[in-house]
Amino acid sequence: MTDTTEVTELTRRLVAVPTVDADESAAQTIVAALLERAGFTVRSHEHAPGRATLIAEWQTGLDTAPLCLSGHLDTVPLGAAPWTRDPYAGERDGDRLYGRGTSDMKGGVAAMVLAAVRAAAHRPRRAGLRLVLTAAEETGALGARHVAPLLRGGRSGPLLIAEPTANQVVHGHKGALWLTARTSGITAHGSMPHLGDNAAYKLAHAVVRLADFAFPGSGHPVMGRPTLNVSTLAAGLNANSVPDLATATVDVRTVSGQDHAEVRAQLAAQTGPDVSWEPLVDLPPVWTDPDDTWARTVGELVADVAPDTAYTPRTATFFTDAAVLAPALGAPPTLICGPGEPSQAHATDEWCSVRRLEESLTVYERVVARWCGL
């Protein structure tokens, strides 16, 4: 296995820079310096002050389109529960490296960057590399959305996302369609409700109808069935008035083959004309057939490096930047495979296995070498 001390140290350096829904640019300066020294062309694109997405390219003009590696550098807040470890120290205890972002997903980013840097020491015979290191993934893939127009129309080979999978190969994830359902009425004094039109009642009837709703079809053989969850309800401003506005948020997770415009039409038909719908997040599902040649190759490479990661076609429960990047890149084969523990994403005392970090660096090096012809 490759000498991997560097991947732990780079992960620690990235963890030491707090990027809790902010300041990804500060963390990117660390990896940008490494990539520039290796010969990558590096560009930084801010969608807000301090919130940059980095695009780094190397030898992208060869006959075969470049492999794209991607991960995000933002993290979620620490949460209300106290940590027993310093969340930004990168403290190691045995096989565990602790800190916010170790699993989700600065460890994966560190491994990808080092694999890219090591590849650039060689002359590719086949293809080059593109890295897209994003900001604001946790809040709706805002960084990926910002750079998507810059990527659209260009040539791209497969896309590999380093989200936490414990180095298991994941072939996609459900789509995320978050919606606001809104009903309107007429306000009146609470003692004379007959003079008003109660928006809360309209919304309540709509929510009950959603409880009985089932998407047509049998679902996806691996992703399962799409799901719907009414997440929040709000109506009225005070106890003695008829509410003239009521809102609910609805979280729909779609499967491959579903069209989100059609899903919205189905929900509108189920709830009736009193309800208007507005999207909050609209990210399509991602799926790559396990029989895809590149996907099979990656699965074989992972099985060789990490034989305890039993291979079976699977999907992630979370969404990723692939929902934005894959369409922008022309829908190439897309896989998710990263060293982080899925159970540690957003957790108190988050940790990542050092062994998994080391495995992931070797996996990424071999995936890059195979695609680029090193």
Name a few traits of the molecule.
single chain; 374 residues; alpha+beta; 6-stranded mixed beta sheet; 4-stranded antiparallel beta sheet; 15 strands; 32% helix; globular
Provide a descriptive summary of the structure in words:
- The chain is 32% helix and 24% strand.
- It is an alpha+beta fold and 374 residues long.
- Strands 1-2-6-3-7-14 form a six-stranded mixed sheet, with helices on both faces. Strands 10-11-9-12 form a four-stranded antiparallel sheet.
- The chain is globular.
What is the fold's blueprint, element by element?
Blueprint: H1 5-15, H2 24-38, E1 41-48, E2 51-58, E3 64-72, E4 92-93, E5 96-98, H3 102-119, E6 127-134, H4 142-151, E7 159-161, E8 172-173, E9 175-184, H5 199-211, E10 227-235, E11 245-254, H6 260-271, E12 276-283, E13 286-287, H7 293-305, H8 322-328, E14 334-336, E15 351-353, H9 354-372
